[in-house]
Design a protein that fits this description.
652 residues; mainly alpha; Rossmann fold; 2 domains; 6-stranded parallel β-sheet; 25 helices; 10 strands; 64% helix; elongated
């Protein structure tokens, strides 16, 4: 079963690199394995206890010692590095995510962000393809810890009911084998009933119109996966209580060598088919209880693999019982906690790192750091006696420090931007504006303090621009912000722009509204920048934007970007018509200068698709790769330099 745990962790890590597009499949495996291991450990401990009682206190103490120090270390180090390596918007997101992670509520934090309950611009990472979120797995760790803390209490209740009605009088250990067997199978029955009810929650919420983010992140929906693993563990314990371990050695050797392998291959095939469906149709997969089906397959695989030691183990049991899978399983929690921060640091060090390089190099580094921490630090802490007063005071101080950092980190960074000597550049617009902010702030010389005020999916219209296909590179699968939340953010762009300008006090504004260049539906028709009605409407919207710039940032130059003449989601004619509107606005408003992105990235109707070093310029049709940002940064910084130093009308 340790090998299956290793496979689950490997699936999450592979998914985190962008090399595995099966959405949340790795998370389903982790939750099912977590339910199995927790239940198996507690039931085995109960059977070995003199009074057939679960040592709940000892289990919680051991769980606490193993999990909390490593999580605190990771959050503290990541927040510290975010100050030096991350732009303010990202640092602020990491600070708030760390606070939610301390309370094991990362999934609800992500759910609130993606449905608009927290903040107006949604998750900073939601429309940032290629940007690895170092704390992007806190939602899964939060789910895991919520179940790990609540399920043992429920299992004790189930165990008590099974002992009361299964033949054990008062929980004593002097009952006969029949009573023991009845108690074990009654436990399985109660677990199955609870899991069956939990499995109905997802489909019922889907039929009620629940958002995809709720189906992916909600504790009430994902509980079924944990419980299916728990049912599998209870079943294994019940079979062994009936005497399933007592087969003669020669009988085990002949009977147990072929059927587990056949059954395991069938289950693995079902899991692969589930992964293919998740990749091809992720929304339908979530609505059709795909995660629950995947967890059920993993639970069956655990039942097949977790069999008594045999002289002739089956091929699948032998394969998952040694080598890499077992080592990954033993290091499961450290790898889950550490691999994304390590991938994030590697992404900063090597901008064009490939997915499988992240997996090999980053995975090895995460394993090494996790090994040192788990065996060298956590192992010693677990062996020592923890005094209640000293432990409580230390934890309170650690939690308070991380929470304070999470609350104050955005304010501290913003304060540095306002009081520092470096000129402040505020970037406004849609998701490509966010790429420009990352290029200028993260890949430039550091001459400017960059404030990313972009609103992904938003331009000057009240509805989001047509979405471009996004690369998905984190274990979170980068679920998009829901349409209602994004629409609300787009409707309120004027107020948000004024607020951002007031907070950052910029020396220059960089604005990209290229998402507006795409044709969009208007009632029963489709309009584009070449249509008369569109042009009339957009001139008024540009006039409103110019009034905001003149009133909120008087005298500050505004670099207004055009769009590439050839893009994957906008036809060339619409791009040319849109660029004509931008040039017209530059001529009409003295404060506005043209940032000629089209001239910088395209020549004679051909736009660059590769960087100077031969790496892809874009993740998709629109969004820049880190290599693309690196190549664009010198040109963009030069454009900002000239805008601050002259009245030149065209920057290109």
């Amino acid at each position: 079963m340790t090998g299956v745990c290793g496979l689950a962790v490997f699936a999450v890590m592979l998914q985190s690199t962008g090399g595995f597009r099966a959405e949340l499949l790795g998370a389903d495996m982790v939750l099912a394995v977590g339910g199995y291991l927790t239940t198996r450990t507690l039931l085995d401990a109960a059977w070995s206890h003199p009074d057939v009682r679960m040592p709940l206190g000892a289990w919680y103490r051991d769980h606490f010692k193993q999990r909390v120090p490593l999580l605190l270390f990771t959050l503290a180090v990541t927040l510290g590095l975010a100050v030096a390596l991350s732009p303010p918007a990202q640092a602020g997101h990491l600070g708030m995510a760390a606070i939610a992670g301390l309370a094991h509520l990362g999934n609800w934090f992500d759910l609130a962000l993606r449905t608009g309950f927290v903040g107006s611009d949604g998750d900073w990472y939601a429309d940032r393809p290629g940007q690895i979120d170092p704390l992007g797995l806190l939602w899964l760790l939060g789910l895991f810890e919520q179940f790990a803390l609540v399920w043992p209490v429920l299992l004790v209740g189930i165990w008590w009911v099974a002992g009361r009605f299964g033949g054990r009088s008062g929980g004593t250990s002097d009952a006969g084998p029949s009573a023991t067997e009845r108690m074990a199978w009654l436990t399985v029955t109660l677990c199955l009933l609870l899991a069956g009810v939990a499995c109905l929650v997802g489909p019922m919420r889907a039929m009620a119109g629940a958002d995809l983010t709720e189906l992916a992140l909600g504790t009430h929906v994902r509980a079924a996966e944990w419980l299916l693993g728990a049912c599998a563990a209870a079943l294994v314990v019940a079979v062994r209580a009936r005497g399933g371990d007592e087969l003669p050695a020669d009988s085990r050797g002949t009977r147990g060598s072929w059927w587990p392998t056949v059954a395991g291959v069938i289950v693995l095939a079902a899991l692969v088919i589930n992964a293919m469906f998740a990749t091809a149709r992720p929304a339908d997969w979530l609505r059709a209880a795909g995660p629950t089906l995947a967890a059920g397959c993993v639970a069956l695989l655990l039942v097949i693999v977790d069999r008594p030691a045999q002289p002739r183990p089956g091929s699948l049991q032998w394969l998952l019982g040694q080598g890499g899978p077992v080592e990954l399983g033993r290091m499961a929690y450290p790898l889950l906690v550490l691999h994304l921060p390590v991938f994030w640091l590697l992404g900063h060090a090597v901008a064009q790192a490939r997915s499988y390089a992240l997996l090999v190099v980053g995975g090895a580094l995460a394993w090494l750091v996790g090994l040192l921490l788990q065996d060298g630090v956590v192992g010693r802490l677990r062996a020592r006696r923890w005094w209640v007063g000293r432990t409580a005071s230390t934890l309170v101080a650690a939690y308070a420090a991380i929470a304070a950092g999470g609350f104050w980190l955005p304010a501290v960074v913003d304060g540095q931007l306002r009081t520092g000597k470096a000129p402040v550049a505020l970037v406004l617009g849609g998701s490509f504006a966010g790429d420009l902010a990352s290029a200028l702030g993260g890949h430039g010389s550091g001459r400017y303090s960059v404030v990313d005020g972009s609103l992904p999916g938003c331009g000057l219209f009240s509805v989001p621009s047509p979405a471009a296909p996004h690369a998905r590179v984190t274990a979170d699968a980068q679920l998009p912000v829901s349409a209602p939340a994004r629409s609300a953010g787009c409707v309120d762009w004027e107020r948000q722009w004024r607020s951002m300008i007031d907070k950052s006090r910029p020396d220059i504004l960089v604005v990209d509204l290229s998402g507006d260049a795409a044709a969009r539906p208007d009632h029963a028709t489709v309009v584009s920048p070449c249509d008369v009605a569109y042009r009339h409407d957009y001139r008024e919207r540009l006039a409103a934007a110019a009034r905001i710039w003149a009133q909120a940032a008087p005298g500050r130059p505004v670099l207004l970007a055009d769009t590439r003449s050839v893009t994957g989601d906008t036809d060339p004619q619409s791009s040319r018509c849109y660029n004509a509107l931008i040039v017209e606005a530059v001529a009409r408003y003295p404060q506005v200068l043209l940032l000629d992105v089209d001239a910088a990235l395209c020549t004679a109707g051909q736009c660059w698709t590769r960087t100077a070093s031969g790496h892809p310029f874009y993740f998709d049709a629109v969004h820049l790769t880190p290599s693309g940002m690196h190549d664009l940064a010198p040109w963009l910084e030069s454009a900002v330099n000239r805008a601050l130093g002259s009245d030149q009308a065209v920057i290109g």
